[in-house]
Amino acid sequence: MKSIADYVRLESKYYQDILNNYQMLFTNIINLKKAKQLNTVVIFATGSSANAAYGARPLISKILQIPVYVEDPSMAASYLYYNDPNTLYLAISQGGESYSTVHLVQEFLKNKQSIYSLTSNPESPLYKVSNHVLPMGMPIEEMPYVSAGYSVIILDLMLIALVIAQKIGKISVQQFVSYIDQFKKITYRLPLVIEQSQDWVNQHQDQYYQAKRVILIGYGATYGIAREGETKFTEMVRNTAFGKELEEYMHGPYLGLHPDDYIIFIEPHGHLAPRAKSLKVFLNKYVNNISTIYANNSDSAKSGDLCLNIECNELLTSLFMTIPIHLLSYQVSQLKGHNLEKSTYPEFDQITKSKIKRV
307, 295, 312: which is closest to 185 by C-alpha? Predict the structure, then answer.
């Protein structure tokens, strides 16, 4: 079975395959004829799929010039009401076995509502119950803790937004081509990003092995990365971790800081960079271990920081800035001796029915 690190190294190949085939994957499937106009996009997802949706959300909103929401499928199916013909509804489950997502899609179809499902598994329950399936464009990820699949979802969602925006006239041909060129540039640079990230992880993994608590802070497109860091540190390292949006952390959670916290800022060089800088000035008075992962070079970088050397629109940084987080989580989990191919609690799904193996 491939490891997390193996799948991270496959990301550039998966990105290239999708960029070569995005028209076949998405263009002919999405049909907006029933909508008089597109007012909103609602994405239903949990776990890493939700984290990926948050990473793509700012660019989707900018391209389509409409609000974009990420919702929990269990809450949506059980307590909330959705019935707007001018809203595009998307359900995401890479493996296609998430009970809450499958149940949500079934409820939509029972009410004769249109919803598109994004999954990589054509044999999955989600694929079989859906009447509009968008293939992710990659093979099924064998590891139970996804890495490449998380990143591919971000690219898929961005491309889906581009395809729709071109169909409804929200962007010009030149703008469309410009975005595709930027995706290709990032794809070309991914091997170097992985190499730089691997060096950084090798230098700092022992520190994070000792960490009692890790806090990741992002904003804009990197908020999803902070959330994914919380997910992966919790799942794989099995340690306390929190992923916070910058302003969210500044409105209460900072009061629970400890001097021995390990805090990672994920800096896309965006609109809120001055706010992040101010927060670091404060935290440096009380916390011993603060590092920053920068999308590009930075004059503010210090020992322990990582500069990934990609200059791009801040809304595209979610396509590559999770790589060091995935590699760090994986390597610390191995230092701790965790077997990621074996379930820690094999009875969990049997008791909770969180995953559905067949419909």
Answer: 312
If we measure between CA atoms, which residue out of 141, 129, 131, 132 comes closest to residue 1?
141
The pTM assigned to this predicted structure is: 0.95
- Cα 21 to Cα 319: distance, rounded to the nearest angstrom: 18
Contact 205, 236 (CB under 8 A): no
The predicted pLDDT at position 263 comes to: 98
The torsion of the CA quartet 196, 201, 203, 206, rounded to 10 degrees, works out to 180
All structural domains of the chain = 4-186 (3.40.50.10490), 191-335 (3.40.50.10490)
Relative to beta strand 289-294, strand 306-307 is parallel
Contact of 157 with 56, CB cutoff 8 Å: yes
Q: How far is CA 304 from CA 81, 203, 208, 300, 307, in A?
A: 47, 9, 12, 12, 10
Question: Partners of 98 in the beta sheet?
Answer: 355
Cα dist from 155 to 101, 178, 209, 275, 293, whole Å:
20, 15, 31, 28, 21
- Determine the pLDDT at residue 359: 42
Give one DSSP letter per residue of 162-219, joined into a string: HHHHHHTTSS-HHHHHHHHHHHHHHHHHHHHHHHHHHHHHHHHHHHHHH-SEEEEEE-
The beta strands (E) that lie in the chain are given as 40-44, 68-71, 87-92, 116-119, 133-135, 213-218, 240-245, 262-267, 289-294, 306-307
39 sits in which H/E element = none
d(Cα 34, Cα 52) in Å, to the nearest integer? 28
Q: Tens of pLDDT along 117-138?
A: 999 999 999 999 999 999 999 9
Q: Which tens digit of pLDDT belongs to each residue from 7-41?
A: 999 999 999 999 999 988 988 778 777 656 899 99
Nearest to 115 by CA among 136, 101, 98: 101
Nearest to 180 by CA among 198, 211, 153, 158: 158
**Residue 175 burial by Cβ neighbours in a 10 Å radius (0-12, 13-18, 19+):** middle
CA 26 to CA 7: how far, in whole Å? 23
- Assigned token pair, 119: 């999954």
Coil, helix or strand for 41?
A: strand
